[in-house]
Amino acid sequence: MIAINKRPGELLWFGILVMGMIAGLVGVVSVFVMGHGHVYNTTREVPWGILISTYVFFAVSCSGLCLISSLGHVFGIEQFHASARRAIILAIVMLICGFGVIAMELNKPITLMIYAVLSPNLESPIWWMGALYGVYMGVLVIEFYFCMKNNRLGAFYSGLLGFVLAIAAPSNLGGVFGMLSARPFWSGVFSPLYLVITALISGTALMILVHYLKNRCRGLDFCSHDKKYMFLLGRILALLLGILMLSITWKFIVGIYQKQEGVYEALMTLVSGPLSFNFWFFEVSVGMLIPFAMILTPSLRKPLPLTLAGVFSLVGMFFMRYDFVIAGQIVPLRQGTLATASGLAEYIPSLAEISIIIGAFALCMFLYTLAEKLFDLEVRHSHAVETTEIQNIAIDDFAVEDLRGN
Questions:
Q1: CATH number of 44-383: 3.10.310.10, 1.20.1630.10, 3.10.20.880, 3.40.718.10?
Q2: Residues 6 or more apart from 203 whose CB is under 8 A from it?
Q3: I want to staple 163 with a disulfide (CB 3.0 to 4.6 A). Which of 42, 70, 151, 403 is the partner?
Q4: 389 pLDDT exceeds 80?
Q5: Which pTM value belongs to this model?
């Protein structure tokens, strides 16, 4: 049985999460009672709304967490061993919540899953998205089991498979957007690479936040190992943010210079249109520039400022997903499409959609909090040495098999 301490802070935390889940339940009930068309603000012009962007946020963050965890028990980087269990269980929780959000977007998710198995369309990127993330969930569960049992060899091989899927799944998800030639803003090779880079950013930022809260909620001081680990994550986050800023800058330079129809108009919705506040304040300032500057400032290289930088990055990533999904749709596909005076389609999330999103985040935090209480997520330092030895054995096995094959 899970024991909940009766400390005021912990009771308040669970109370807030329960209220958030109740809000989400109200949104879910309204969908079942009144139907999608009456409670969602999606239209024929903008069929994908905030539920899709939030699903992308959860799914891609899950992949980023798995990539970070694999640095420990797959690639043998000792500093990442201690966070492996937390990264994997949080990835599982986020993927569960992502599945829940996308299920609320779909009209008949159960029917879809049945026919996806009975009549698969192997040429559809969306089918592959479902298949990859479905298999990915199973691999994460197996990997977590091996980590909890201290089965280093099992954790290595399942982690290696998870690493491959953690790259394949978000890049395929980017391909769902990138292969839509009718939506030029999404179309192309940028979308798959963009989602992989931002997956790493989300995963790194989440691990900074989780590691900080783990110590603070238990009243523990940060030892030298903890500080070194957080500083390492901070440097990785700064590097990834720099790569992302460079990529986005060139996407805008090329798109504005070429003035390609559909791309230029979508970029302008971000620069000076209806999405400009989201873009300049949440994406550019909060999501990239501020955390990048905080990490590079020597006087702010402390656990709390690094954690705030991670939180800012996560907020920016959420709005980045939203703007990415909406900007690709509000530019009409043809003349005569219902639009506003600006010539753009309009989308504002409904109360039901917002309540479902609140419920999804509350459920995610609730499940992870329970996981912290239910499982022993601490990894002892001695296990790191043992893991490295197992990895060396596994690598030697691969080498021997390769020699035999030759």
A1: 1.20.1630.10
A2: 61, 63, 64, 65, 66, 67, 68, 87
A3: 70
A4: no
A5: 0.90
